[in-house]
């Protein structure tokens, strides 16, 4: 499986299953997509503001739900393996991506595994074990959260500096060397980590050492 980042803005994610797994999937996608959760019952859990529809579609009716909602992704999160299989088949027939929560390891083509993610501003790190060990994914996520602390601020800082160097028509190779030097500078990271107000000035000093010019 190849990891990709997919923009779900304006898209629909259809979740079948209102248990704790369905709630977790709904929360995961509700930040960007329009999420609809279909289930005869719902767990006492946070669904992230997703629309919840109380219904119990059978294997034949799931196709109608998919046709009506036109989802980009369908999540099969019921406790009925046969129903999940029917949901998967209907989703594939409609050309939608599929995430089956009751399958682990080897996946069929067009399957989606939802990774554990760590976010710091514009920086996002995704961890997946292919569904074989969610516990390991959670553990690695906790470790990475510590490791990338401040990465979002570094991304924003170097993004702004890169744009300025481009505007000043700095030679591309020198520009790349300058930004790499900032990213690898312990001094810049120290100022970001301490919450000091001058990380940009320190970064500009690093760039000057590489380019010989602050412009």
Automatic annotation (TrEMBL):
Catalytic activity: precorrin-2 + NAD(+) = sirohydrochlorin + NADH + 2 H(+)
Record pathway: Porphyrin-containing compound metabolism; siroheme biosynthesis; sirohydrochlorin from precorrin-2: step 1/1
InterPro entries: Met8-like, NAD(P)-bd_dom_sf, Sirohaem_synthase_central, Sirohaem_synthase_N
Enzyme class, broadest EC rank: oxidoreductase
Record GO terms (molecular function): ferrochelatase activity; precorrin-2 dehydrogenase activity
Record keywords: NAD, Oxidoreductase, Porphyrin biosynthesis
Span of domain Siroheme synthase central: 120-145
Any single biological process term in GO: siroheme biosynthetic process
Matches recorded under PANTHER family: SIROHEME BIOSYNTHESIS PROTEIN MET8
The name this protein goes by in its record: precorrin-2 dehydrogenase
Species name: Halorientalis persicus
Lineage: Archaea, Methanobacteriati, Methanobacteriota, Stenosarchaea group, Halobacteria
């Amino acid at each position: 499986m190849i990891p990709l980042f997919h923009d779900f803005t304006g898209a629909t994610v259809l979740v079948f299953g209102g248990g704790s797994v369905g709630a977790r999937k709904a929360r995961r996608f509700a930040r960007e997509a329009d999420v609809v959760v279909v289930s005869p019952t719902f767990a006492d859990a946070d669904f992230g503001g997703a629309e919840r529809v109380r219904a119990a579609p059978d294997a034949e009716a799931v196709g109608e739900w998919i046709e009506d909602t036109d989802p980009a992704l369908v999540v099969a999160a019921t406790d009925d393996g046969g129903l999940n299989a029917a949901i998967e088949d209907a989703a594939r027939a409609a050309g939608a991506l599929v995430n089956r929560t009751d399958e682990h390891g080897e996946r069929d083509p067009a399957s989606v595994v939802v990774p554990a993610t760590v976010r710091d501003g514009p920086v996002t790190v995704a961890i997946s074990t292919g569904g074989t060990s969610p516990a390991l994914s959670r553990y690695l996520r906790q470790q990475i959260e510590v490791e990338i602390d401040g990465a979002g601020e570094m991304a924003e800082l170097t993004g702004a500096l890169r744009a300025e160097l481009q505007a000043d028509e700095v030679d591309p190779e020198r520009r790349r060397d300058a930004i790499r030097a900032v990213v690898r500078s312990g001094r810049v990271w120290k100022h970001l980590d301490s919450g000091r107000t001058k990380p940009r000035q320190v970064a500009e000093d690093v760039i000057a050492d590489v380019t010989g010019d602050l412009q």
